[in-house]
Amino acid sequence: MNETSQNNSEISILVVDDVEVNLIILEEIIKNMGYQALLAQSVKEALQVIEDSDTLPKVILSDISMPEIDGFTFCSMLKNDPYTKEIPVIFISAMDTASDLSKGFELGAVDYIPKPFEKTEVEMRISTHLKIYTMQRELEENNRRLNLVVARQMEKLRIEQKNIMTALARLVESRENVSGTHYKNILYNSRILAEGMQLSPKFEDEVTDDFIDTIESSAGLHDIGKLMIPDHILLKNAPLNDEERKIMCSHAELGARTLNDIYEGVEKNDFIEMAIDIAWYHHECWDGSGYPKGLKGNEIPLSARIVKIVDVFDAMIGERRYKKPIPLEQTLAYMQENAGTIFDPDIIRVFMRIYRNFKGIHLE
Question: Is the pLDDT of residue 178 over 80?
């Protein structure tokens, strides 16, 4: 009796042959090996046995020449079904020409046992393919567990990355923003706007649930490049001169390059890639008049087009050290007037329907 990693009595071998005496002989061999024998005299009966069994047979022995449906067709049916395709199929037949053997292997059979049966050969073939089948299943399970461990570690790394970036983004805000709410507003409002866009046929394919989750995390890094802007420019309470404005505008490129440098040599993920896009392009304009690259229209990544609207809106209605809040009505008029020039007009249409759900506004 052969030993396996599973209790032998729980292992079933299916035999399909239209000749009853062959079934009796193979059943006796299989039982003497300690396995359970499942018997069928036709392919139709075999398929019913598989359907009715609580567990799949670990090996199938099938005759080739049978009425109605032959063994070749049966093997093809098994291999085309995801549920049964991994079961090893061994042909049992007096048909032993090279063409028969070749066809069987092409269809996915793993072995061939000639008739009349020789007990030792049958036992050897069954044992060999049971071991291979068991090893393959164990390897797949080990790979599944390994992939699960790797996925957990990658998720842990991703969370750590986000935490570091969040700390940097808050550092930018602590230097520049008076109210201390801009960062939170950008995250929340970007999600709200993206959720509204998901309901629009224009954006429903691109704005997936994953996209929404990612932009909520990435949007807060839009101004990370301001960490490298000198205080005398970043904190100036008066209008910037041309040279100062040029330096200030460099924060978009500085932020994107900083994120790239931080993750150089590290496999990028959706969070980092979107954060880089947003940092680069959230000051681009729909008509191409923005910076740093002068992109226009759909050349601008969708995430950056969303954050631009959210960022401008929150900056206008919020207080800064250099300005008082701009009234909501005046801000909305500005957003609408610049749809198609500064802002993506399709996103503005969504924005006008849902802005009341944004954080940072005070409705009468």
Answer: no
Residues 129 and 13 in one domain: yes
Q: Say if 362 falls within a structural domain.
A: no
Pair 273, 129 in one domain: no
Q: What is the mean pLDDT of residues 250-261?
A: 90
The single residue listed with the structure tokens 């759909």 is 298
CA distance 223 to 308: 11
62-88 in b/e burial notation, b at 16+ Cβ within 10 A? bbbebeeebbbebbebbbeeeebeebb
Q: What pairs with residue 113 in β-bridges?
A: 92
**How far, CA to CA in Å, does 211 sit from each of 190, 275, 303?**
11, 12, 9
204 and 328 both lie in a single domain: yes
Q: Are residues 349 and 213 in the same domain?
A: yes
Report residue 215 as tokens.
């932009």
Which range of residues forms the domain containing residue 126? 8-144
185-199 confidence digits (pLDDT tens): 999 999 999 999 999
Contact call for residues 14 and 42 (beta carbons, < 8 A): no
Contacts of 273 (CB under 8 A, 6+ apart): none
